[in-house]
């Protein structure tokens, strides 16, 4: 009889692990950090996006099996990520759209970090942000944006139906 209880206990533990691993990622969020560097006059932008969500978005746009962060990662992954960011994220600084430069990414099991810079930004009076990253993939996607300009910090949440925001400094 003691063996039966052990067997039942193991089954419940395994069920709990599989349910909890499903529950870990039942929300959809990305984080974007925008820092102004006054010395280099740049905006340093970092995105943290769930790896599986980013893979899904990229795979839905093309015919590639991305496999981010693995030895089988598709060779065009960096250019596909850059294009995805350029298509879904835009900054207007004082009314002017500035070009962004994709610097690269670091893919981990859970999250992928993407790095972008905008050059020739000595100061900002108004910043218009458009962020629809993953909104085309997940209806309940939320995109958190953290801004750091001249020591002044602020945060925004953008989502389907509200993918644009203007900030005045």
- Write down the secondary-structure element order: HEEHHEEEEEEEE
How much strand?
35-45%
What value does the Rg take, in angstroms? 20 Å
Counted up, domains total 1
Low-confidence stretches: 17-23
**Number of helical regions:** 3
User: What gross morphology would you assign?
Assistant: globular
Q: What's the mean pLDDT score?
A: 89
Strand order of the largest sheet: 5-6-2-1-8-9
Structural class: alpha+beta
Distance between the termini: 71 Å
Biggest sheet features: 6 strands, mixed
Total number of strands? 10
The amount of helix comes to: 25-40%
Give an account of the 3D structure.
The strands form two sheets. The chain has a six-stranded mixed sheet with strand order 5-6-2-1-8-9. The chain has a four-stranded antiparallel sheet with strand order 4-3-7-10. Helix content is 27%, strand content 40%. It is built from three helices and ten strands. It is an alpha+beta fold and 169 residues long. The protein has one domain (28-168).
List the helices and strands and how they pair.
Elements: H1 2-23, E1 29-37, E2 42-50, H2 51-61, H3 77-88, E3 89-93, E4 96-97, E5 101-107, E6 111-118, E7 126-131, E8 142-149, E9 152-159, E10 164-168
Parallel strand pairs: 1-8
Antiparallel strand pairs: 1-2, 2-6, 3-4, 3-7, 5-6, 7-10, 8-9
């Amino acid at each position: 009889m003691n063996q039966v209880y052990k067997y039942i206990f193991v089954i419940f533990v395994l069920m709990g692990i599989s349910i909890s691993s499903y529950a870990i990622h039942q929300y959809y969020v990305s984080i974007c950090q925008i820092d102004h560097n006054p010395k280099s006059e740049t905006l340093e932008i970092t995105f943290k996006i769930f790896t599986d969500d980013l893979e899904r978005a990229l795979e839905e746009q093309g015919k590639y099996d991305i496999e981010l962060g693995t030895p089988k990662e598709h060779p065009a992954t960096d250019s596909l990520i850059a294009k995805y960011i350029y298509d879904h994220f835009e900054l207007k600084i004082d009314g002017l759209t500035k070009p962004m430069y994709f610097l690269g990414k670091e893919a981990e099991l859970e999250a992928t970090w993407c790095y972008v810079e905008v050059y020739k930004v000595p100061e900002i009076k108004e910043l218009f942000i458009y962020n629809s990253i993953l909104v085309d993939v997940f209806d309940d996607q939320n995109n958190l944006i953290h801004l750091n300009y001249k020591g002044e910090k602020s945060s925004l949440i953008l989502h389907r139906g509200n993918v644009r925001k203007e900030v005045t400094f």
